[in-house]
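User: Can you help me understand a structure? I only have the sequence.
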Amino acid sequence: APLFISEQSEQGTEVTCEQCGSVYEAMQIH
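Assistant: Let's start by predicting it. Here is the structure, written out as tokens:
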């Protein structure tokens, strides 16, 4: 399971991460 996903926005394109700094980059992979 992905560890960078903490909270998912309504659009599902933005997530807040507790330990990751590359939130947008991680979402682009998905």
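Now, to help you interpret it: The chain has one domain: 1-30. The two ends are 12 Å apart (CA to CA). Let me know which part you'd like to focus on.
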